[in-house]
Amino acid sequence: MDTMVVDVSVEVVLLARLLGVPTVVMAQPGHRDDEPHALAFRAASTIIAPWPQGVLQLEHLRPVQDKVVYTGGISRFEGRERMSAEAGRSGVLLLAGAGGSAVSRDAVEEAVRASGRDWTSLGTGAGSVWSDDPWDALCRAEVVVSWAGQNAIADLAAAGVTAVVVPQERPFDEQVSTARALEANELAVVRASWPDAADWPAVLDRAAELDPDWSRWQVAGAARRAAEAIEAVAAGDNARGGR
Fold first, then answer.
1. Each residue's pLDDT tens digit, 34-69
2. How far apart are CA 140 and CA 89, in angstroms?
3. Cβ partners under 8 Å of residue 192, min gap 6
4. From edge to edge, which strands make up the β-sheet containing 23-26?
5. b/e per residue 189-221 (b: at least 16 CB within 10 A)
6. What is the Cα–Cα distance from 5 to 23, expressed in whole angstroms?
7. Residue 236 region, left (φ>0) first, then alpha (ψ -120 to 50), else beta?
8. In 13-52, which positions are buried (b, 16+ CB within 10 angstroms) versus exposed (e)?
9. This model's pTM is above 0.70
10. Rg (the chain; Cα; Å)
11. Residue by residue, what is the 3-state secondary structure of 1-21?
12. How many CA atoms lie within 13 A of 69 on its CB side?
């Protein structure tokens, strides 16, 4: 084995290194400055940060900055053709992730009734249904309501949507960290928690008026940059900081 790509797991990083296998670690936002995570980052050959350089100021990556490759957001929809602007966008899409949520089905239904708009819910939980391919729904929606996971944000960027982002609770506040970056860069309307039903019309109106420059999330070429970083480790090259 030339190299191993590890998604966060400290134990797997250390096992691979004890076996003499170079590792590439996928970083996540949030507060990961505890000693186990710091040890994994020190042991890694390269760290891939799947977001643009400069949008997230993460203290836990500063000591290993020379190993970090910023790829931009990695989306499976990169390069996929969007629905033409002439066809128009309408309604609200709730893009609910599979990682768990504090938002109940009742809360969503109250928001639907109060908003005066048609809603579609995809994902898991909160009354959503699963879709293998949500691309058309992303492209048709006037506003997308989403949690703040890395995959979801990269997909929003790929589709060029206007969005309301509601970060969900995670052990290291990774979604809160990402949501703050989106708000600071004027890429989405961010709410710390699910808004009250009466607030939804104003929240959606504000989102619909946004003109986010999602190119700043650097989805184009992100998967290729990640693959090149992994191949470099496999070839025995030192990591070089990315975009």
1. 999 999 999 999 999 999 999 998 999 999 999 999
2. 5
3. 166, 167, 176, 179
4. 4-6, 23-26, 46-49, 68-70
5. bbbeebbebeebeebbeebeeeebebebbbbbe
6. 6
7. left
8. bbebbeeeebbbbbbbbbebeeeebeebbebbbbbbbbbb
9. yes
10. 19
11. CCCEEECCCHHHHHHHHHCCC
12. 25
**205/46 Cα distance (integer angstroms):** 42
- For the stretch 131-157, pLDDT in tens is 889 999 999 999 999 999 999 999 999
Residue 215 structure tokens? 């190119």
Distances (CA, A) of 182 to 115, 150, 156, 178, 211: 23, 12, 11, 6, 13
Is the distance from CB of 109 to CB of 200 less than 8 angstroms?
no
- For 159, the token pair is 């589709």
**Residue in this structure with the two tokens 């391919």, named with its chain if needed:** 133
The separation between CA 64 and the C-alpha centre of its own chain, rounded to angstroms, equals 22
